[in-house]
Amino acid sequence: MREFELIEQLRRKLPASKPGVTLGIGDDAALLRAPSGTPLAVCTDTLNEGVHFLPDHPPAELGHKSLAVNLSDLAAMGASPRWALLNLTLPAADESWLEAFAAGFLSLAERYGLALVGGDTTRGPRSITVTLMGEVPEDQALRRDGAAAGDLIVVSGTPGLARLALQERRAGRPVSAAAYDALHCPPARLELGLALRGWASACIDLSDGLLPDLSHLARASGLGAKLALDALPVASDFSTLEAQTRWELQLQGGDDYELCFTLTPERRGELPELSQRLRVPLTVIGEMTDAPGICLLDAAQNEFLPSGGWSHFAEGES
Amino acid sequence: MREFELIEQLRRKLPASKPGVTLGIGDDAALLRAPSGTPLAVCTDTLNEGVHFLPDHPPAELGHKSLAVNLSDLAAMGASPRWALLNLTLPAADESWLEAFAAGFLSLAERYGLALVGGDTTRGPRSITVTLMGEVPEDQALRRDGAAAGDLIVVSGTPGLARLALQERRAGRPVSAAAYDALHCPPARLELGLALRGWASACIDLSDGLLPDLSHLARASGLGAKLALDALPVASDFSTLEAQTRWELQLQGGDDYELCFTLTPERRGELPELSQRLRVPLTVIGEMTDAPGICLLDAAQNEFLPSGGWSHFAEGES
User: Fold this and answer.
1) Identity of the residue in A29, A144, A203 whose CB atom sits nearest the CB atom of B42
2) Is any Cβ of chain A less than 8 angstroms from the Cβ of B79?
3) What is the DSSP-derived secondary structure letter of residue A292?
4) DSSP B168-191
5) I want to staple A182 with a disulfide (CB 3.0 to 4.6 A). Which of A129, A162, B138, B235 is the partner?
6) Which domain holds residue A299?
7) What is residue B3's predicted lDDT score, i.e. its pLDDT?
8) What value does the mean pLDDT of chain B take?
């Protein structure tokens, strides 16, 4: 594959100029004009074939997903996306695959006014690294360490749905459109992230799974948390599952790219309006506690210990 | 491998705070304070095992190299490095490999005051993506498109040496220390890049090879070039080679990470002092021409056509 050709190809699909881009694709480095006084939020994620996506992941949806998982990180900081870099490693140049991948990537980029300003194309086992730069006023950034004891824990969407879709696909069973999208074409909760600026006390995006990610937030805030298992949002795809199987999916599914955030109880009344305005399900699932660790309670207030034990959850795995 | 542990491990090795870093490793995104009014220079490169480095590349030197090839891009823009992201894909967690890799990476980062502010660690075939952000005043950035007909073409170091070392290693023959370093531990010509700000008319870093990279610069400037083959810098490792074999190494070796730049002939006299001050060999190898294409002349002024023909060189391959 010719690196030059792919980059040229992408450049031709892009608008000629973008705000804040002095020099885009085509030199040794891009030159960007960051806004003065506003911090830059920077994040990056790598997706590898066979680990983060199946070899038959449709390329347009993979283009979307590789950008969405990074937009999710910016959303979790309350940042607006500005610029993207795309590093693509492919075993061979497959024009139709590339065309579809680029279409999925660029269409999501376009929706958020994101400019592709550089990257690299190399030969090797299929792997995608996306790096994003965005902006967020320093005093409004949604950090992990801002939660207080007594703050409510809220989650967007339906954690566990992506993992359910993966399990069903592996077993050769059909899934609902919602579950299919959760796995192949996850959301990018940017509007939600912006709405939470200066409103939520802490926020994290769900990539490892609700329980390990909430553990990160709790530890960063020097707190613990109490979760009500029967409050976890449920999709119709979950209806045939035993409670315990469903809880484990919801708690440790991973690959959700939903936001989990905390807010003072006084703001609970404003959640329904926010959820309706953004058309994003928002569910209160528990509260932050002074006691460290995450306590999981069923409807009868009995504590539930997930399989694999605590250390598995407490640390999180990649 | 636990992603969390590796990132924590790297964080512990780093200075607690760095200028311009509001929030480093450990949240969904890093928060950085870019200097107001100065453009951000951003570049990224991926290195894959078996394609860009051999499986037995010593890990400390691979850590150095993966950063150096990116610093080379910033150097070619005349930018000062500020912040780095490291995406590391490994088949398994090998503590001693990681330790050595991190030492090589961080020691070069430290030398240039570069802060590691984020990244990602994933499982998969070994692959390294580094993304750098730096700064350069807009009117002093070294772009590829600034050369004028009659400008001299200058190259740093000894292009072809890294490729020679690779060939010799594959053949099981020993190489000089200089050739070994060129392959395993390439330079990062940052001081040279800074010195060329507002002085050179155009600049590019040599990654694909002298001829394809010079072609990029010439095309970006709407020009051609004339190269004197007997002016190309020679290393002692080249002494046993036939002229034609040597030229092909020097012209299309690749992986050099030297700078190739152009300057008005009036500045030729200042080159020796610059070379001496920076302790970097600088060699005038030709001049830019109005006629398009690259013309290669031997000592008798006969044109040399490299094997593989012109299109191979004119476009460059990755």
Assistant:
1) A29
2) yes
3) S
4) HHHTT----HHHHHHHHS----HH
5) A162
6) 142-315
7) 54
8) 89
Can you tell me whether residue B144 is helix, strand or coil?
A: coil
pLDDT tens, position by position, A149-205: 999 999 999 999 999 999 998 899 989 999 999 999 998 999 999 999 999 999 999
CA atoms of A261 and B80, how far apart (whole Å)? 37
**pTM for this one?**
0.90
Provide the token pair at B46.
Answer: 């991926």
Query: Which of the pair, A66 or B313, is modelled with greater confidence?
Result: A66
**CB spacing of A124 vs B48 below 8 angstroms:** yes
Q: Interface pTM (ipTM) of the complex? A: 0.88
Residue at A71: amino acid letter: L
- Alpha-carbon gap, residue A106 to A64, rounded angstroms: 8
Q: Which residue of A has its CA nearest to B53?
A: A124
CA distance A114 to A116: 7
Q: Over 80: is that where the pLDDT of B13 sits? A: no
Number of domains in chain A: 2
The encoded tokens of residue B80 equal 């000062």
Given the structure tokens 């949002």, which residue do they identify? Answer: A233
Q: Which chain B residue has its CA at the smallest distance from A44's CA?
A: B119
Same domain, A224 and A159: yes
Q: How far apart are CA A261 and CA A270, in angstroms?
A: 14
Task: Name residue B149's amino acid.
Answer: A
Does one domain contain both A152 and A122? no
Domain identity same for B124 and B55: yes
Q: How far apart are CA A293 and CA A94, in angstroms?
A: 48
User: Judged by CB atoms within 8 Å, which residues 95-134 of B form the interface with A?
Assistant: 117-125, 127, 129, 131-134
Residue B1 contacts A, CB cutoff 8 Å:
yes
Determine the Cα–Cα distance for residues B108 and B114; give it in Å rounded to an integer: 8
Give the closest residue to B39 by CA, choosing from B79, B75, B72, B73: B79
Contacts of A127 in chain B (CB under 8 A): 46, 89, 124-125, 127
Tell me the one-letter amino acid at A271: L
Are B310 and B173 within 8 A, CB to CB?
A: no
- Do residue B127 and residue A89 have CB atoms under 8 angstroms apart? yes
Q: How far is CA A96 from the centre of its chain?
A: 27
Examine the fold and report which residue of B139, B161, B193 is the final residue of a domain before the chain moves on: B139
- Which of B139, B165, B196 delimits the end of a domain? B139
**Tokens in use for B267?**
């500045």
Can you give the CATH number for the domain in which B155 is found? 3.90.650.10
Contact residues on chain A for B127, CB-CB shorter than 8 A: 89, 124-125, 127
pLDDT, one tens digit per residue, over B147-167 is 999 999 999 999 999 999 999
Here the tokens at position A220 are 């960063």
Q: Are residues B148 and B99 in the same domain?
A: no
Whether chain A has a CB inside 8 Å of the CB on B250: the answer is: no
